[in-house]
Amino acid sequence: MFRLKALLFVIATNVFVLISKEAVGQQDSLFWFVAPDVDALHGDSPIFLRVSTMAQQATIELSQPSNPSFIIQSLIIPPNTTGSIDLTAQKNIIENQPPDQVLNYGMKLVSSTPVTAYYEVASDVNPDIFPLKGKNALGTEFYIPSQFHYPNQIGKEAFDIVAIENNTIVTITVTDDVIGHAKNSTWTVTLQQGQTYSVKCVGSAIANTLAGSHITSNKPIAVTIMDDSLRPRITVGGYDLVGDQILPVNLLGIEFIVVKGFAYSGTENFEKFYIIASQDNTNIYLNGSSVASATLQKGETFWQAMTQDAYYILTDKPVYVYHISGHYDELGSALVPHITCTGSTQIGFNRTSNLDFALMLLTKNDYKGGFKVNGDPSIITSGDFNPVPGTNNVWVYARKELNSTTSLPVGSNIIQNTLGAFHLGILNKLGGSSEYGYFSDYSSLYLGPDISFCPGDSVILNAGPGMTSYLWNTGDTTQSIVTSIPGTYYVTVTQELCTLSDTMNIAHYPVNPPNLGGDRFACLGDDITLNAGDGYRAYLWNDGSTQQTLTVTQSGEYWVQVTDENNCITSDSVLVIFHPRPGSIQIKHN
Fold first, then answer.
1. For the chain, how long is the longest CA-to-CA vector?
2. Between the CA of residue 97 and those of 104, 186, 341, 534, what are the distances in Å?
């Protein structure tokens, strides 16, 4: 029990020192995402991308790097505002379908300033929101968190993968029969930048779950999970879409708080949370108990029905915590952020309808009096909060229904805390259905996965906004640095009572430049064929031609530019000279 006591001591003293990789928050300037294929028989439209700014205006651009038919979307969003992009007209190239095929539907969102973003399926009967995690979402190992209590009324459970680099080899092991592959089978798929791949269950019964399925890759990817049209009462009542974008294993935490939503009707309680282990012999402790509620092996799941309004979770190895919530018997789900050195001071979101709306708020006891909703301090007050069991009154939570559009209007809203960080879950009711998502930083520092780039290019390393101080191993003290030199880079930052560090390795891609050979000579009237070599993705000669070879008949300097499999561009040139043919010589015979 020594480890547990040590962890509890850390919590009680509110001093956290992290020296391993931790996740940056959802506030970011680059997001990768792949949208799930929601079943149109229940409802899969309209669909939107919602983007919220903080104190700065943002210019955003949404593209599909591997799909030239996608119409690039641009938007300027004023400060402290939520902007929306309606993607419904392009739904056939947004939703990742069909399964078990390499597709080109990965979305890339770039912003001029840090923003938060989420993807929304805003169907009145089958909605949910998918908060985007920025570089939080990128990694090389994932386990799939899921539930195993409710069947799919319409649709199936699935997870979707998007690659952010070329030549990404993804290895997948599934825990259920999926389209194209049997239960417990393992296979690989190779993706280029922006390409996607969907894994979908064959069946829709309670037993058909992908919980514990395992994904690894040689380069960073992002993963979306979806469970379409869950029916909590099994044979009657509502059924609804749930899902989220998940974190990679290296960014998981050990300390969580789950706040109950409103997914119950009378004596029926549909609220549950699921804990998925990423390592063997993971012990789980609830509400400060010194006795483990369960010991899990990697990929295994522990679940708990939420008979209390809040649960404190402590584990001795990193885990996922996945929460099923919602309104009545209409469900939503969210990956719950860990609470060690995490949280946001301001969160923007969009209220989609004038129907029921609820907030689940989590903060430290010292910060409960600092909330403002759209600048109004009277809507969420310290009296709304209760202590979280097992945290010695360090943490408090609130379950706040704000159904009136007077206090929380339809459209863009901002919640901030002037005293410190907080976490926010929102429950948004559309028609007879419910949306659920968590909006808050998942942690405080993550430079991103190790990367490679082309020689001659440069990369920006960004430690994130809002820190008290920054110190890079280069000696820089700025939020971000720019470098073109391969190597190991690390930064140490301070934020409130936390000191955090992260390390990133960057390297050059190996390049194989074209070789046109030495200078060439020939006689006028002949021709010379120049060959740039095979194996490149693209060729460009100085005359504009784009083939591997170029046949020339005139003197001059010729160059070729090639693009390799990593999109690195190199070139070579050669001098070609055509000499006049010598005149004829008359030979006389005596």
1. 126
2. 10, 21, 38, 33
